Amino acid sequence: MLGNLKRQWQRRMLKDPRYVTLFVDDTQEVVSVDCETTSLKVQEAELLSIGAVKLRGNRILSSQAFYVLVKPTRKLESRNISIHGLRPMDVSEGLDADDAVRQLLDFIGGRPLVGYYLEYDVAVLNKYVRGITGISLPNRQIEVSGRYYDYKFKQNPGAYIDLRLAELIADLQVPALPRHDALNDAITAGMLYLALKQRGFG
């Protein structure tokens, strides 16, 4: 009930009618999304890349993937480069962050979002989304680590549950793609979601 009221309020506050599509529920597909950023602190983080892929039924629609590089406003630090491998020359021709997020909004529409620790990615995206639309993302969010926790808790209530990504990949037996690439990470989260769905935790 509260979720519906919030969505109704958000729809009234939407300042750009082009994005009313965010409120058109799509029950056929979900979108797995991941962002690479300059910091793990939401307040400081700037986007460096965004990856997303659509899922329909039990399939990842890799032919309908979304990937953009984003040009940050500040110089990249060496510790950032060592994590995600994106160098200044890689992002120098990237899109302006607002343009990149506009493209993402067109891509996701009203589909639910899937991700691994999705709350962080959505929080960073919302810094830009609010400026573009006047609201935060209204899309339903599906947290893979939360679904995995429920799956393991049902098997062994009270046991310690390791929520590290490597553990989820190994336990659910999905292919391990190279990490810290936004599109690869989005695909990985999508595979984990489908593996949990097949186990009754979708």
From TrEMBL:
Keyword Cell membrane recorded: no
Domain of life per record: Bacteria
One Gene Ontology term of the molecular function aspect: 3'-5' exonuclease activity
Keyword terms, alphabetized: Nucleotidyltransferase, Transferase
Domain Exonuclease as annotated: residue spans: 29-202
SUPFAM superfamilies referenced in this protein's UniProt entry, alphabetically: Ribonuclease H-like (SSF53098)
Gene Ontology CC terms, in alphabetical order: cytosol
A Pfam family matched in the record: RNase_T
EC number(s) given by UniProt: 2.7.7.7
Keyword Nucleotidyltransferase listed: yes
Matches recorded under CDD domains: DEDDh
Protein name as annotated: DNA polymerase III epsilon subunit
Native organism: Aquitalea magnusonii
Source lineage: Bacteria, Pseudomonadati, Pseudomonadota, Betaproteobacteria, Neisseriales
